[in-house]
Amino acid sequence: MYLVCGEALYDVFLDSENGSGVLRLEAHPGGSPYNVAIGIARLGGKAALLTGMSHDMLGQRLFDILSREGVATDHLVRLGRRTTVSLVGVDAQGHPAYTFYGLGSADCSITPEDIQPPGPGITGLHFGSFSLVVKPVADAFAQLVDQPGGRFVSVDPNVRTNVEPNVDLWRERLSHYASRADLIKISAEDSGILFPGQSFETLAADWISGGCRLVIVTDGGDDVLAWTASGASARVTPDSFPVVDTVGAGDSFQAALLAKLAADGDGNPKAAVASMDAASLSGLLGYAISAARVTCGRRGADLPRAADL
Predict the structure, then answer these.
(1) Which of 249, 94, 230 is nearest to 185 (CA)?
(2) What is the pLDDT, as a whole number, of residue 18?
(3) What is the residue-wise DSSP string for 169-229?
(4) How far apart are CA 200 and CA 205, in angstroms?
(5) Which keywords accompany this UniProt record (predicted)?
(6) CA dist 35 to 7, 128, 249, 282, Å?
């Protein structure tokens, strides 16, 4: 089972206004780690979510959805703080822009003392997005990834400079995780923010020399690149497909990666990565691309189920 660590919130989409100044809003449960946990479960994998979750009405809805989707809730930390809300505007190309209302909210407020050591049933940890940098939750997760146990570790920075504009802090936190990670997935956009002017190949080589076993770079609808510590590499070009919006596409890709690695490794994603050659690496990327394609054809972060693929 993967323990997915990070935020749980509501994305509120700004739809339109009727001429009188009244806005139409549409709210979807979200947060990158929340989406990834649900995505793993929808694809037949096992996932639990570790986050601070409010007792307010939005927090209870988030909890109920997790239960309905088959995500384990025993690692949640329930708090008397509000649920984070993120306003989402979508441009003509379908790319999201976020305005964040969440500092001091439940998902940002868990401390190292709130986190119990994962049990033997947890074979993988996934971290990502603004929970890497916003305190106190960032410190709690940094201590968690340092715990011994030999678990598979995955990270996707999913940079949100509207939440934390300090790029040096993002870079510092990612470096902490990179030295402990088996898998790093990063978008070309995030790479450009954190490591401007550095080639993807050089970035991957640096991480692999530091101990990472698999590095994947996504670039929207363009080629997906990957390298392993054993020397395998792959480049997969996605087919063109209609896009409603791209909200949750990266989360779908990440969830599919983790679900397939666990399945291919018979519950041990480390074993799947260790045995990967160029053909199986290309197959992994193709599966993840298919998952992202489904989400891009839907409004909001509506991740696919196994039957959709």
Answers:
(1) 249
(2) 64
(3) HHHHHHHHHHTT-SEEEEEHHHHHHHSTT--HHHHHHHHHHTT-SEEEEE-TTS-EEEEET
(4) 8
(5) ATP-binding, Kinase, Nucleotide-binding, Transferase
(6) 9, 11, 10, 24
**Residues, the chain, total?**
309
CATH number for the segment(s) 2-15+26-308 = 3.40.1190.20
Of residues 153, 151, 29, the one with CA closest to residue 84? 29
pLDDT at residue 16 above 70? no
The chain-wide mean pLDDT, for the chain, equals 94
Q: Using CA atoms, how far apart are residues 151 and 268, in angstroms rounded to an integer?
A: 9
Beta-strand pair 152-156/124-128: parallel
pLDDT value of residue 288: 98
CA distances from 180 to 147, 150, 218, 307 (A): 10, 10, 21, 34
Residue recorded with tokens 């997915």? 4
Asked whether 304 and 254 are in contact (CB, 8 A), the reply is no
Report pTM: 0.94
Is the pLDDT score of 217 beyond 80? Answer: yes
Amino acid identity of residue 60, one-letter, is Q
Helix H segments across 76-199? 137-146, 167-178, 188-194
Instruction: Evaluate if residue 299 carries a pLDDT over 90.
Output: no
Give the residue-averaged pLDDT of 174-187.
98
What pLDDT score does 121 carry? 93
- Please answer whether residues 242 and 211 qualify as being in contact, where contact means their C-beta atoms are separated by less than 8 angstroms: no
